[in-house]
Amino acid sequence: MTLDSVSFARRPSDGGVPARRAVTRWAWRLLRREWRQQSLVLALIAIAVAVTTVGVGVSTNTPLSPYVGFGSATDLATFSNYGASTTAKIASWHQRYGATDVIENQSVTIPGSVATFDLRSQNPEGPYGRPLLSLVTGHFPTRANETAVTSGVASDFNVKVGSSWRELGVTRKVVGIVENPKNLLDEFALVLPGQVKVANEVTVLFDAGRVGKTSLGSNVITPASVAQSNVLNPQTISIVLVTMAMLLIGLVAIAGFTVLAQRRLRSIGMLGALGATDEHIKLVVRANGFFVGLVGALSGFVVGFAAWLAYRPTLESSAHHVIGLFQLPWIVIIVAVVLAVAAAFFASTRPARAMTRISVVSALAGRPAPPKQLRRSAVPGIIFAVAAFFLLGAAGASGGNGSGVGEVALGFVALTVAVVLLSPFLLTVLDRLSRRAPLAIRMATRDLARYRARSGSALGAISVGVLIAMVVIIASAARFGNVLDYAGPNVSSTQLLIYTPNGPYGPGGPGNASKGGGASSESMTTMARDAHDIAAALGSNKFVKLETTSATLQHAAPGRSYSGPLYVATPQLLEAFGISESSIKPTTEILSMRPGFAGITKMQIVYGNYFANGGPNGAWPCPTSDCLANPSMQEISALPAGTSAPNTVITEYAVHRLRLARATSGWFVETTKPLSAAQLTGARATAAADGLSIESKSTIPTSATIIDWATLVGIMLALGVLAMTIGLIRSETAGDLRILAATGASSRTRRSLTAATAGALALVGAVVGTAAAYLAMIGFSRTNALDGLSSLASVPMANLMAILIAMPAVAAIVGWLAAWREPKGMSGLVIQ
Amino acid sequence: MSMLELRNVSKVYGGGTTEVDAISDIDLAVDRGSLVAIMGPSGSGKSTLLTIAGTLEQPTTGDVMINGSNVVGMSRNDKARLRRRTIGYVFQDFNLLAGLTAVENVSLPLELDGISMRKARAQGMSALEELGLVDRAESYPDQLSGGERQRVAIARAVVGERSLLLADEPSGALDSVNGEAVMRMILSACHGGVAALVVTHDAKLASWADRVVFLRDGKAVDETLPPQQPEDLLSNDTSSPSES
Lengths: 832, 244
What we know:
By secondary structure, chain A is of the alpha+beta class. Chain A is built from 24 helices and 21 strands.
């Protein structure tokens, strides 16, 4: 058995490529054999990539792409007419850049309708515009008296191929049906170039190479300039979301790969005994991570692409444009696949390093390395948390004009890193705190602290999940809790507002005082009768006339100002809401149901020609003409809460004192049962007949809905991570469990141990995630002029309790219930 | 020059009150072509001796010479290279790598040493052929019987230019027929110039050795030459073979 061909000296000391290939092959074989043990991470990655593929395909293809008008050109210029300067410019571009494609449009109204179509001259064989034109039937026009129309135009004018069609004084023969495959809602009649006499839009497509947009004029756009003005597009959002998802998956995968490496300890020990270096051993674990990521990502892509193929026809019809088979944002998908592979690979590097720290002898005996008594410092995590605090502060100071997006992104990245770094440290703290707790809790927290490789990453994942949910909850609560810029639901499902043509602010609303006037008394009588009829048809139990004046409220301080209509607190309105006049102080000028409203300082009632005279000029108190500083305000909780409902009203006392003119601006209707779609349709039709309009419950999610959903998603995310990792974490201490069983511990002890592990992880994750979210929001709000720190005073207590108390309790209960079964083969293993 | 030489080797585990002397002042030499058996009761330090001889563990004191080179103080990578090229292990529970076929298991040490897959495979097939397993070359470990697995393990331990074979209870999980067959193969390897150090509880199998070293409480208490049977020295050993 001699090796005659390759001498020792010539062989690389680390085995070189053959050695790496051999261990990689073994890793691949192990994945094929033991894929079920890794099905959790595989499934997570596959689902994430599949959802990304379909989601990003739908989100980017649903709206019309901002790039569709370019055809195959790189530059697009638009002109509002075809004058001499336009002609000269096009000629100059033609000379400088070669081919140009000119598309002229003349907007034509369809008789009897407010809709229009375009009479379009475009060369079907043009160098850049071909993707914007396709033939459905017939042929493109080849003569001046020919046209090809879209199916919509054909239907509107009742023409078909072969028909004669007279439009704009010219009779043309319809020779084909055409469409713009990039926009199926684009209705036009195609004629030969030169046939559009009065173009009101001229589009020039050309390729100016690398010439800057500004050097060509402000009416020239390029895909790059469109992209710059559209930073928060579906692609960017998708990449951010998929990055967050992969981060969470990576944290879960660390725990999974660690346990898997543990299970392969003897084989890895044998590999070491055979002469594998530390690098070879690391490569086995890392290659496994890489393959898991690759297989998961590719499977996810295949599933996602199949789903995309199935859904594409439906999407085409709802998005109104042709969507190509492969018309997907491939960059995003490639990024998702790369992130998936990277997440799995990097998740495996820590277990890979840990494997090399176990001696070959211990590994051969299947003995894991004893947990190191690490005194991991919290300093790096604190440094990242502080950095996040100041980055978010910088974002808040930017004033929300979009310039702080980078700081927000960096701030949250730093915060996530801080949470991940601090999680293992906090497990040690938890262990110390629970030294006097009952046995099961003590053992659970000690094991969590001892085996931080798995529990730390799981805690990080839970904390990040809670962090995301809590940021949404706190931000929503802060935004919707703002008393001034009230942003709650508009009205409830039993309420309806009927407006006169002047809308909720009335004929003399804010900034509109000089217009004055309103509907004639005759038409107002008709409208009032119609409104009454609508209310009667709906079976209303409350019908209140709403009156407005030229007055509104203003907050003479930085930050948000008052928003919403300011109706008059007429006796009828007060009575409708059960408010007795005696409950209102005689000198009160403003009534509001908004909690805390009465305590706001620097408020003023502005009216009359205040806005016409220049509006706010920074002076406080404001000039007495057209302005009343520090009005007397009183909170009345009986007023309705909707943003469009009369939640804040001006009293009759103030109306008289300020000599405000009043006018009817609408009616408030309330029914006993939620209004049905049919009732709303009927009300809308009746209202439209006399120029009235109605407002019913908006489909925009209310603050409560957003907060509740965020709470639910946060809890589900955290519990999902727990469900996925708790088994892995407990398997680490399976030996202890066996010893416990052998020493006579009952199933109650086993259950308590699992329940305590799940509950402790959930509790610490909830606390860390919530604390990190408040850190982020305080960092942002303390410098934010619009909202400020006071906006955080609105604490969603019920949701906080759900996350901080109910979630850990549910985790503990589920852990208790799930641990009813004795681990497989426990008794035999005890004997061994 | 002996293939393996242990000079004054001691190994202490733990520290302070938990300090345990696993082996003390062991001197041992194994020449090329010779088979040395190590016997002793449980906890006598047999396995520790084997792992130190195989560079898997570092002695607390003393020198370990393999083919004339002192391995104490060698880097981890140098020791790994030494194991790839010089030392072969056989364990009681075979320790074949799941996921690799018999021939891939045998050729793995060669591939780890930088030999191309094709050449390593040829060498692996040759080793299996010598042990009569060529028809089982493409079988996975879980498709092999216990005896076959141990023969594959021996093939893996002697493939290439290995000159030191270390076996820890190689017949412990086999019946007597297979156990003898395994010992015969190890002896055959020794006849080919390999130095072998075998830990065993089985006095009958130890009788195949050129020399038997007895350990008790980490010390070499006796050394004998076959055909003298060492049952009398084992009278105090009541442990089962698997506890070694």
